[in-house]
């Protein structure tokens, strides 16, 4: 007769209690801000005086707001690579360009210029070409978003595979090289092949004539058109806002999962993560793929926003601005990165110029502040690194690490405590 010893029940610690505001404060805040912006620009602003409309438009035009949303999507993609995984990427603009050119190839009449034999090409999958531009390839905008995300994810793996064996400064230099190579390909891709018969990117002339955004079943709502054109800025705001919300949701959910925890482990200590069984190469490649997919989506949105793809837009300074958005907003914190991206995008587009005009009116100076944007960004970075290294809205883990005293301070504190204890013991012995 065998006896079995009863096993003690597993006692799990209770989950930490968080208030409703702590869990949903940021999402509700962004949602309320989005609704307010749309309602104000759609119904309230048109009813105001022309003078007020001009003044408000000079400070916060809808074009700048839409562009800021796209910058925020790019910043969230870079945050996957830099903030979550700790991999310094100085060539993220390459994925922006790839996504934009995927949109140009699949949503514009340009395809019939690629090769002489394609001159009469006309292919459409639920496309929405502009009148008179039906030739070429026209694939539905929503499908192109998925295609661009997949293409950029594959490109991220291809670019990351030979480079992720490097670390720190070497990795940054290699990604910088890729970020410089691809824009040159875009600029010089007009005559490719043995006889120059292939036109891949249309060179510096770029690709124009992007398809419109279909509204699908929402067109049956009164006031919603079948397609969103170039100048339907308020409706574009809804589309870009939804894509930003999707990027934020994916970032938050991935971070809480197994993949996100593996990224954080690599960021904190790569050697310890590998000893715990984390497959470094595969996890790093997944970070590059996810971050690049965000860049592909943003590239399609940006091409739709400006109505084309221009090779001169994809220069090294874009990668630096995106990195500044991540660092100043708070690396690893989705809300901080989003706020930092929106703020810096507004400063770079209209805010710096308008603040400069106010300064010139007050002081009587004639300084063109908009032409000194990198000087201003550099000064902001220096001040943040001196007084708030963790960023505007830092991640809790990052804030704790950056606010810890350095080793020299800890050792000096321990020496002072040891000296105080010895003095106390000596005084006790004398008594």
Automatic annotation (TrEMBL):
<protein>
    <submittedName>
        <fullName>Branched-chain amino acid ABC transporter permease</fullName>
    </submittedName>
</protein>
<feature type="transmembrane region" description="Helical">
    <location>
        <begin position="237"/>
        <end position="254"/>
    </location>
</feature>
<keyword id="KW-0472">Membrane</keyword>
<dbReference type="InterPro" id="IPR043428">
    <property type="entry name" value="LivM-like"/>
</dbReference>
<feature type="region of interest" description="Disordered">
    <location>
        <begin position="404"/>
        <end position="431"/>
    </location>
</feature>
<feature type="transmembrane region" description="Helical">
    <location>
        <begin position="64"/>
        <end position="83"/>
    </location>
</feature>
<dbReference type="Pfam" id="PF02653">
    <property type="entry name" value="BPD_transp_2"/>
</dbReference>
<feature type="transmembrane region" description="Helical">
    <location>
        <begin position="90"/>
        <end position="108"/>
    </location>
</feature>
<feature type="transmembrane region" description="Helical">
    <location>
        <begin position="139"/>
        <end position="161"/>
    </location>
</feature>
<dbReference type="GO" id="GO:0015658">
    <property type="term" value="F:branched-chain amino acid transmembrane transporter activity"/>
</dbReference>
<dbReference type="InterPro" id="IPR001851">
    <property type="entry name" value="ABC_transp_permease"/>
</dbReference>
<keyword id="KW-1133">Transmembrane helix</keyword>
<keyword id="KW-0812">Transmembrane</keyword>
<feature type="transmembrane region" description="Helical">
    <location>
        <begin position="285"/>
        <end position="304"/>
    </location>
</feature>
<dbReference type="GO" id="GO:0005886">
    <property type="term" value="C:plasma membrane"/>
</dbReference>
<feature type="transmembrane region" description="Helical">
    <location>
        <begin position="20"/>
        <end position="44"/>
    </location>
</feature>
<feature type="transmembrane region" description="Helical">
    <location>
        <begin position="316"/>
        <end position="347"/>
    </location>
</feature>
<feature type="transmembrane region" description="Helical">
    <location>
        <begin position="367"/>
        <end position="387"/>
    </location>
</feature>
<keyword id="KW-1003">Cell membrane</keyword>
